[in-house]
Every structure is written in structure tokens, then in C-alpha cells.
Amino acid sequence: MPYKGFGNENEVYLIGRVLRDRGIGISAIEDSRFRNFRKMYKRFMTWEIPNARIKATLDGNEWISTTNEEGYFEFEIMNHAFPKTDNSWREVKLELLDQIIPNQGVVQATAKVFIPTKLVEYGVISDIDDTIVPTGATRIWEMVKTTFLGNAHSRMPFPGVSAFYQALEKGTDGMENNPMFYVSSSPWNLYDFLMELLEVHKIPKGPLMLRDLGLSREHFFSGSHFDHKLSQVEKIFRLIPSIPFILIGDSGQHDAEIYLQVIKDYPGRVKMIYIRDVSENRRDHINEIASQISGLGVELVLIQDTIAAAKDALGKGWIRQEDVLDIIKEKTENSES
């Protein structure tokens, strides 16, 4: 199971996992709650393949990685020249070198890696839970029910989100070249589910930076929500060094605090911060953080809905007028349905 990677002209970061295929498949809009629960159960009850060698092939060059005790593998491809082109996605061929079961045959997969093109205006890093899709992340039982009983079709994004993210990906030239990254404290077990959710609701694809449930691994962060998200955002900044970023999150957890630290660690790299207002109790605290961020030369806007963010981005000249009209239309249709 390769996860979407990313990098620059000289370095690529790619991770994935080797697991027994539980036959989860894609979801359907008519799937029952029991069927959804059974699929989600399989995602968490994994059978990992440790100590397995994986070969990555790119442009005729090969690299080898070995899975750890939870089946994860990692490639950090260094000093490889990636010419800037108009195509931002490259393919890396992966092959399992070790025999795990008798008569297994060839086991291969293709990983997609994002390399920014020469036409990028800015990048976008977004949270998922309560930023793109309502999850009740601040209410544990509500979040558990939403996660285990729903599927990619029944989990509806906030109205207008899909069109807004499409507008950000297009920027002002309409070329869909601005990179989109999704950083979440959801576990890697939900990777296929979240990718399907993005595809079903036509939210632009991009690398997902999720969290490991294990406690003993070193390469994949399993610490606090704050530490995990900060480390992943800063990894993106390090590997995509030449462009500014718009950061999007929500007020339910600690996105504003994390983004404040990012600004301190990487001055001049943050273009704008949008925080969805989902917690009335934290509103005053978020405004205090916004004041601190303003003192560092960056604006944080606490938004009530997607339209507010879209109008702000339009006013700053980051998206196109015609795309804002699509956002308003989508939000109206979603709100009425």
C-alpha cells in the first residue's frame, strides 16, 4: 500500500506499508452501517508484514527499503535530478522482493510522487477533521460513531469545500498546479478511506500525512497531536522550499497554535491562515493567537463558513472570480440538499 509522496528537484520522500489484503474494496452509497463497520474493523485489524524488502525504481535507478515491525517502509531518495516540467506527478515502481507466502508471484505497486512544477503560485496545507469534513473531533463518542458507521459517500464535507479547494489548486492561472497537502492526526489505517473521500467529493488529490497508532517506531511520529502535525507541516516546508503556503485548519483542537509555531520556525513562508470556527469556547483564545501571528506579519482569519474564506482569498488576488461563483453555487446546493 504506497502512500502519495512528495519532494523537490533533488529529494523525494515516500512511505507505504506491506499488509495482508483484507479485501476491503471501495464503498458504495447504499452500504449499510454494518457493512461500513465491518470494513472499518478490517482497516484497524491489520496483518502487518515486517522485515520485508521493497525495491523502488525511478528513472532506471533502484533503492531498497525494509519494512519495520508494523509493516511500514520509507524511502528518502537523495541527490536525484528531477527536471521541472508541466507535469507535477511522477511514478515510482515498487516491488516486494521477499517471498511471504508460497507461490505468491510478483507483488508490485505504483506510487505517485508530487514534484512542484515551474508554474506553482503557492501551496496549501489543510487539516481534515472538522476542517474539510465534520467529525466531532472534540467529542470522542460522536467521532467514533462517525468514523466507524459512515463511509466516503455518507461523510459529507462542509458546504463549498470542494469548489474552494479546487479554486486554490487552480490559483489565478487556472492550471491546477498548486500543491495540496493534507495533515491529520487520523491513523494511517484510514488512508484508503480518506483518499476515497477526497475522490468521491472531488476534493483535489495530494499527499496525506497521517499518524501511526504504534508507540515504538521512530520514523513515523506517534506522539501528541501538536508534535505530529507540527513535524509533518515542517517536513513539507523543508522538502518544498521555494514557495509560500496557505494553511487551513479549525478551532476545535490546536491548529492555530501549531501554525503559530510554524511561522516562528519558518519566517516568510506562510502566506495566510484560515481557521474554521467550530468551537465557541476557544474563540477568544484563537483571537489571542491571531494577534500574536499578526505581530509576525501573517494574517489569521477565523471563518464561519467556506464562503468567507473564498471571498477573502479573492480579495487578496489568490483565486479567480469565476471560481468563487462556483463555490457559492456549490455551498448553496449542498446546504439545500
TrEMBL record:
Coiled coil: none annotated. It holds the Pfam family APP1_cat. InterPro entries: APP1_cat (IPR019236), Mg2+_PAP (IPR052935). Residues 122-277 form the Phosphatidate phosphatase APP1 catalytic domain. This is App1 family protein. It comes from Belliella marina.
